[in-house]
């Protein structure tokens, strides 16, 4: 019972965090999460002027098969964040093992992320990376602000498949699956 009491002392209702005091440092948290291997995606949409915008995201997962739902977590400081909220739709481009340079490009703050990157506009008016391993076109069905990110839940409207092996991110580095079959 005492541990519940200590836990409850650390909780708060107001503000962007649920803790009154820091429980673990952001560096410790990042280091722990780095031990979880993830795939790498580029989340894309268009801004109000129809210009493509996007960001690299590894915080992506499926939510439901019926209906088909996915989620992606977007940092509030991301240049693409306003467009993702306003547009109400986004694409998830799952990157192949040979697309590390694309991932690095979309992880920057540069405005010309799509320059020199082959892409096309989908019938849903979303920018899709031509060489992606898979592409999911989504309509945003809900958003949840949590800490310094917003969770976008998208209903998958259309999917496309490529070929190759996935790009993986593990312990702060890009990697590839070993022994994977195509």
Describe this structure in words.
This protein has a single domain (32-171), classed as Pnp Oxidase, Chain A, CATH 2.30.110. 17% of the residues lie in helices and 40% in strands. It contains 4 helices and 12 strands; from the N terminus they run ααβββββαβαββββββ. The strands form 3 sheets. The protein has a 7-stranded antiparallel beta sheet, sandwiched between helices. A 3-stranded antiparallel beta sheet has the order 1-11-12, with no helix packed on it. A two-stranded antiparallel ribbon has the order 7-8. A hairpin with a 2-residue loop joins strand 9 and strand 10 (149-161). It is globular, with a radius of gyration of 18 Å.
Q: What kind of assembly state do the chains in view correspond to?
A: single chain
Shape field:
globular
Roughly what is the average pLDDT, rounded to an integer? 87
- CATH-assigned homologous superfamily: Electron Transport, Fmn-binding Protein, Chain A
State the strand order across the main sheet.
3-2-6-9-10-5-4
Helix content: 10-25%
Instruction: Specify the CATH architecture.
Output: Roll
Q: Estimate nothing, just give the exact number of structural domains.
A: 1
SSE topology sketch:
Blueprint: H1 2-10, H2 26-33, E1 38-39, E2 41-46, E3 52-57, E4 60-64, E5 69-75, H3 81-87, E6 89-94, H4 100-106, E7 119-121, E8 127-129, E9 134-146, E10 149-161, E11 167-170, E12 173-176
Antiparallel strand pairs: 1-11, 2-3, 2-6, 4-5, 5-10, 6-9, 7-8, 9-10, 11-12
